[in-house]
Specification:
Layout (H helix, E strand, L loop, with lengths): L2 H7 L2 E6 L6 E3 L6 E3 L5 H4 L9 E6 L11 H13 L6 E5 L5 H11 E2 L5 E4 L12 H13 L12 E5 L2 E4 L4 E2 L8 E2 L7 E3 L3 E3 L15 E2 L7 E5 L6 H9 L5 E6 L9 H12 L3 E6 L12 H8 L3 E2 L5 H14 L3 H8 L10
Parallel strand pairs: 1-4, 1-5, 5-7, 7-8, 15-16, 16-17, 17-18
Antiparallel strand pairs: 2-3, 6-14, 8-9, 9-12, 10-11, 12-13
Helix pairs in contact: 3-4, 4-9, 6-7, 9-10
Bound molecules: aspartic acid.
Aspartic acid binds next to loops.
Length: 351
């Protein structure tokens, strides 16, 4: 047995179970889906015992459907990782699929300088059903969370989503299917790893910490005064005004068409200018699944750029939301937030 194999076999992992389909099984009497006692995870997935890892688990109380996830849940996930950081080699977060891309994005910003993997996973079918995708997803997530390189460093010290044999950077990921096993994609970033007969890591694009020995910095101050304005044909002045100029928002993500285009009507542009003059952070993110915002291509893009809108590059809306909560929490100065939005903080934007 090589040193590396030996080290990996001794890996210790913490599973955080927040809820979602993955932790459900069918009640044999009523045939309804119910959460199972997560401390029995090894009984449900006996394959995990074939790894020689130490696997501990913590279950949220109450466990939740991920449609109920809010920043308090993200803070609790971060807190558990923070408190147990030195005890484990990696962390696996079991989470419902509906908001997994939001949670993985937010956590990627809340933890700076990660040296260990934080791997989110879940499933489309409950783990207690014969055709479940949950076992395979969990087993791959566990193996990846334990993986070390020849220097004994984590193979993937990033916040990721492991689903359907692919490891995706969390803040690049979107849920793209409500019913296929291939539920997630990261259209603007290739997978960080793919699980076939062996797990093939795309090491060239995996982010590494500047200092492997430094403890990461955890941020718990999130400012959620952010709205999302999705542009569509027929959008009304009232809706645009309410969202852009609302007193309680510091920032608005404007989900535009294509490469960052929006209506160039006089009323629309004057509301954008008004919000900008109020000092709000206005961030342009495309509604398209893939591609990048470039407001210099079309006159309609240039028009909103001239009203003070910042380009979001190829960020997903999920990443943009987490990044704004994080940056607004860090600074009371909206101009500083605008400057930092353009920076690549955690691999969320190609620049
Ligand atoms: N509604 C569930 C959730 O997101 C769906 C799932 O787990 O896949 O919690």
């Amino acid at each position: 047995m090589t040193d590396m194999q030996n080290r990996q076999d001794k890996a210790s992992l913490l599973l955080l179970y927040t809820g979602g389909t993955i932790g459900m099984k069918q009640d044999p009497n009523t045939l309804t889906l119910k959460p199972f006692d997560f401390s029995q995870i090894l009984a449900e997935v006996p394959e995990l015992a074939k790894f020689a890892y130490r696997i501990d688990s913590v279950s949220f109380d109450p466990i939740i459907d991920s449609s109920d996830v809010d920043p308090a849940v993200w803070k609790e996930i971060a807190r558990l990782i923070d408190v147990h950081y030195d005890e484990y080699d990696g962390f696996v977060v079991l989470h419902g699929t509906d908001t997994m891309a939001y949670s993985a994005s937010a956590l990627s910003f809340m933890i700076e300088g990660l040296t260990k993997p934080v791997i989110f996973t879940g499933s489309q079918l409950p783990i207690g059903l014969p055709r479940t995708d949950g076992k395979e997803n969990l087993i791959s997530a566990v193996e990846i969370a334990a993986a070390k390189d020849a220097n004994g460093h984590a193979m993937v010290p990033e916040v990721c989503i492991c689903f359907d044999n692919r490891l995706l950077r969390g803040n690049r990921t979107k849920k793209v299917s409500a019913d296929e096993f291939k539920a997630f994609r990261s259209p603007n970033m290739p997978p960080l790893a793919e699980a076939g007969i062996s797990i093939r890591y795309n090491d060239a694009i995996i982010r590494k910490p500047v200092d492997w020995d430094a403890r990461p910095a955890f941020t718990y101050d999130l400012d959620t005064r952010v709205s999302i304005l999705k542009i569509h044909p027929g959008i009304t002045r009232q809706v645009v005004r309410n969202i852009l100029c609302g007193e309680d928002t510091r920032a608005v993500i404007i989900e535009t068409y294509g490469s960052g285009n929006a209506p160039a009507s006089e009323w629309f542009l004057s509301l954008v200018s008004e919000a900008s003059a109020m000092g709000k952070v206005l961030l342009n993110v495309t509604q398209c699944l893939a591609g990048v915002v470039n407001m210099g291509i079309y006159a309609n893009g240039k028009a909103i750029q001239d009203c003070g809108v910042t380009g979001g590059g190829d960020m997903t809306v999920e990443a943009a939301l987490g990044k704004l909560f994080y940056l607004l929490g860090k600074s009371a100065e909206n101009d500083a937030v605008k400057r930092n939005l353009a920076l690549n903080l955690r691999g969320e934007i190609s620049i």
